[in-house]
């Protein structure tokens, strides 16, 4: 037996909310730290910049990744979220040979509820950094 379902048309509106915190680096271009649309938070790629003065960290990739993760944490916190809210992570590396060093730092920020993720090697990153990470989170 086949049943018919009648769908009513409705309009769904969502407010675009800009997320900004002084506890993460200011954008270095025409973009925002994060944008929230409904239940989703889109966090721009973070690099190893000091939130206080915007200076670039120069050092090993593990330390660079730690700074990136702390910058992401500050933005998530401003939006009322934390790492458990992350649905998807994108990691961009200059050298895939350093994947395990990045992964070791990255793993400390999550419990067993890991997000989806891709990690890709790229030809270049802003300001010559070794790693950039962006996330999508949801409530």
Describe it for me?
- The chain has one domain: 60s Ribosomal Protein L30, Chain: A (2-Layer Sandwich).
- It is built from two helices and six strands.
- It has helices spanning 61-78, 99-107, and strands at residues 16-19, 34-37, 40-46, 86-93, 116-121, 131-138.
- A six-stranded mixed β-sheet has the order 1-2-3-6-4-5, with helices on one face.
- Helix 1 (61-78) packs parallel to helix 2.
Quick description:
With 139 residues, this protein is an alpha+beta fold.
Rg over C-alpha atoms, rounded to the nearest angstrom: 18 Å
Biggest beta sheet attributes: 6 strands, mixed
Distance between the termini: 39 Å
Weakly predicted, low-confidence segments: none
Strand order across the largest sheet:
1-2-3-6-4-5
**Overall tally of structural domains:** 1
CATH class: Alpha Beta
Q: Taking all residues together, what is the mean pLDDT?
A: 93
Q: What are the defining features of this structure?
A:
alpha+beta; 139 residues; six-stranded mixed β-sheet; single chain
What is the secondary structure topology, with strand pairs?
Layout: E1 16-19, E2 34-37, E3 40-46, H1 61-78, E4 86-93, H2 99-107, E5 116-121, E6 131-138
Parallel strand pairs: 4-5
Antiparallel strand pairs: 1-2, 2-3, 3-6, 4-6
């Amino acid at each position: 037996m086949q049943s018919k379902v009648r769908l009513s048309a409705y309009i769904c509106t969502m407010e675009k909310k800009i997320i900004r915190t002084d506890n993460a680096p200011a954008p270095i271009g025409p973009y925002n730290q994060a944008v929230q649309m409904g239940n989703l938070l889109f966090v721009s790629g973070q690099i190893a910049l000091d939130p206080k003065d915007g200076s670039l960290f120069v050092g090993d990739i593990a330390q660079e990744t730690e700074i990136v993760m702390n910058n992401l944490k500050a933005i998530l916190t401003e939006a009322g979220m934390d790492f458990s809210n992350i649905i998807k992570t994108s990691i961009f590396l200059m050298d895939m040979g350093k994947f395990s060093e990045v992964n070791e730092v990255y793993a400390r920020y999550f419990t067993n509820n890991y997000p989806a993720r891709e990690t890709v090697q790229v030809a270049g990153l802003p300001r010559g950094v070794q790693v950039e990470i962006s996330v999508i989170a949801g409530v």
